[in-house]
């Protein structure tokens, strides 16, 4: 019997862990190399839309995630100045109880995935900083000098990926988006102590609330079963080019948002400290793969966070790639003549890229579109935007017709959240095998 394929994953973020979990379920041997000495999640809240929760349901760990999450019932857009409700969207949130739209603390998300990967037999090694990759030998050299070989190497090393540079053959850093974000979390009790009836009412709603305004917007939602709340505020970037994050000034933040909806400014008053994060993204890469090495998640398609799809795309990548490699391994073990034996790992990786790349580029462009829609200055364009949002009919228009904004485009939204990544990966495998048979 053939030995299981050995997949070496660089990076223990959401995408790398998703691959590790799915790959172990397919019977691959998995080693995850994480450069940090301790897994300390960056950020606070994170959203798990239905296209990602479907994958976790298929893996059997959705219920574990739900224990530490809130199921979002809707996403609401509100006007920045007075909190007027412009639009409530339930596309995705109300799609199917089997794969709900979850909101969760990133620390809980990562902890659950780490535990699941280890329970399934994945090896997670901390303090492993990769220095070089050998594409001919299929190996990695760590800063310590240790060499680790694998049948396939997965670069899940995030926004500042070193494997991206190695695959492309040149430096390819992410670009500034022009925005930065303030991020923080609040306890329910801290918000209740404000004594504001409108804030209390908002805290009782299991929804994602967004205030949209000139050059800025705010996102607020519950995490940890409603015991805590996450808030992200965006504004034009003022951080120096070489500074990614720094401690923010509460007085500066309050001054920037002082004329916004009083409900939001009341919530801001509960901040004890705040961090500023430079928001970065990257244009579409020429390629995600080289030999037996492939990228996933932010390493190959870092995007603006204006669709709540960045982490979900990394989960999709991990699921798609693990599914293709799992079927490939099964075909090697069977040793049958279905044409699969003509396939190679580089070919599998190319098909993974073909399956995911156009989709992630579409979503990247969609995030840019949402950024522009959210941040309109008050005036004619803003008034027309608000009119269109208020009049949203939430029906799928005939082919050839589109909405003014993708945020209310039912066909576009369903294409995102209804995606069954694992089924699509299996279909991609069948297509590969069929094409091999046709070319004999």
UniProtKB/TrEMBL annotation:
Record flagged with keyword Disulfide bond: no
Domain FAD-binding: start-end pairs: 7-326
Flavoprotein among keywords: yes
Transmembrane segments: 6-23
Pathway: Secondary metabolite biosynthesis
Family annotation (Pfam families): FAD_binding_3
Keywords from the named record: FAD, Flavoprotein, Membrane, Monooxygenase, Oxidoreductase, Transmembrane, Transmembrane helix
InterPro entries hit by this protein: FAD-bd, FAD-dep_Monooxygenase_BioMet, FAD/NAD-bd_sf
Family membership noted in the UniProt record: Belongs to the paxM FAD-dependent monooxygenase family.
Protein name: FAD/NAD(P)-binding domain-containing protein
Organism: Apiospora arundinis
């Amino acid at each position: 019997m053939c030995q299981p394929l050995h997949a070496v994953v660089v990076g223990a973020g959401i995408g790398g862990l998703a691959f590790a979990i799915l790959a172990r379920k397919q019977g691959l041997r998995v080693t995850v190399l994480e450069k940090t000495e301790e897994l300390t999640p960056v950020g606070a809240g994170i959203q798990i839309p239905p296209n990602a929760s479907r994958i976790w349901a298929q893996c059997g760990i959705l219920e574990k995630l739900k224990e530490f999450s809130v199921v979002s019932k809707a996403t609401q857009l509100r006007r920045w100045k007075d909190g007027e409700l412009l639009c409530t969207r339930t596309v995705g949130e109300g799609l199917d109880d089997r794969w709900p739209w979850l909101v969760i603390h990133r620390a809980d998300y990562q902890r659950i995935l780490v535990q699941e990967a280890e329970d399934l037999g994945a090896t997670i090694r901390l303090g492993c900083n990769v220095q070089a990759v050998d594409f001919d030998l299929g190996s990695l050299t760590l800063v310590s000098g240790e060499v680790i070989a694998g049948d396939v190497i997965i670069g899940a090393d995030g926004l500042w990926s070193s494997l991206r540079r190695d695959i492309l053959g040149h430096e390819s850093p992410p670009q500034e988006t022009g925005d930065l974000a303030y991020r923080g979390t609040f306890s329910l009790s801290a918000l209740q102590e404000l004594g504001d009836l409108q804030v209390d009412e908002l805290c009782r709603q299991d929804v994602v609330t967004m205030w949209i305004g000139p050059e800025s917007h705010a996102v607020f939602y519950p995490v940890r079963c409603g015991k805590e709340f996450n808030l992200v505020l965006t504004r034009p970037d003022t951080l120096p080019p070489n500074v990614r994050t720094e401690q923010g000034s509460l007085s500066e933040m309050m001054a920037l948002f002082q004329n916004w909806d009083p409900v939001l400014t009341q919530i801001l008053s509960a901040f004890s400290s705040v961090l500023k994060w430079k928001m970065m993204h990257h244009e579409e890469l020429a390629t995600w793969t080289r030999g037996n090495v492939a990228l996933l998640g932010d390493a190959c398609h870092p995007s603006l966070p204006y669709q709540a799809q960045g982490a979900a795309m990394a989960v999709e990548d991990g699921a798609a790639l693990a599914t293709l490699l799992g079927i490939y391994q099964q075909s090697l073990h069977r040793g049958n003549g279905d044409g699969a034996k003509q396939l190679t790992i580089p070919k599998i990786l190319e098909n993974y890229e073909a399956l995911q790349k156009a989709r992630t580029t579409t979503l990247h462009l969609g995030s840019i579109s949402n950024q522009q829609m959210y941040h309109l200055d008050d005036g004619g364009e803003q008034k027309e935007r608000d009119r269109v949002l208020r009049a949203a009919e939430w029906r799928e228009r005939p082919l050839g017709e589109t909405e003014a904004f993708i945020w209310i485009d039912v066909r576009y939204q369903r294409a995102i959240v209804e995606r069954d990544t694992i089924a699509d990966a299996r279909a991609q495998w069948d297509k590969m095998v069929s094409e091999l048979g046709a070319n004999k």
